Amino acid sequence: MFKTILGYDIEEGVTQEEYERWLFEVHAPDLLANPHLDRIIFNKVEGQVTTASGGTADIPRGQSFYRIAEMHFADEAAFRAYREWFTDHPIPLDRGPVGRTRFKFYVTATPTEVTRESLAGQAR
């Protein structure tokens, strides 16, 4: 799997209700029309945590975000195809994020999933 992770706030002057309606009724369907995107996960940020698990380290307060979103792709080639697909299928500016979303970061990532099962049998 390959994914993008992006953090953002809502632009001033846009209410949460307006934003949510646009996000789920307009923007998400526009993105998912692209056959190279497998899924989107919208994580609504509820607060900040200031200590690591078990109090093992203090964590300074960082930036605030309205959401941190993930877009999942089969692999990096699918992500590149996703970007290229919009050349022939552009999202009209009035349907896009300009004037609604204030991006703070947008990165690509390759995940490593760790589960109890994947750790079973490993020496500790």
3D architecture notes:
This protein has helices spanning 16-32, 76-88, 116-119, and strands at residues 2-10, 39-44, 67-73, 101-109. The two termini are 28 Å apart. It is flat and about 55 Å long. A four-stranded antiparallel β-sheet has the order 2-3-1-4. The chain contains three helices and four strands. Helices cover 27% and strands 25% of the residues. It has 124 residues and is of the alpha+beta class.
Number of helices: 3
Mean pLDDT reading: 95
Structural class: alpha+beta
Q: In order across it, which strands form the biggest sheet?
A: 2-3-1-4
Largest sheet: 4 strands, antiparallel
Q: Percent of residues in beta strands? A: 25-35%
Count the E strands: 4
Uncertain parts: none
- How helix-rich are the residues, as a percent range? 25-40%
Oligomer: single chain
Radius of gyration: 18 Å
Provide key terms for this protein.
alpha+beta, 27% helix, 4-stranded antiparallel sheet
Question: Which secondary structure elements does this structure contain, and how are they paired or packed?
Answer:
Blueprint: E1 2-10, H1 16-32, E2 39-44, E3 67-73, H2 76-88, E4 101-109, H3 116-119
Antiparallel strand pairs: 1-3, 1-4, 2-3
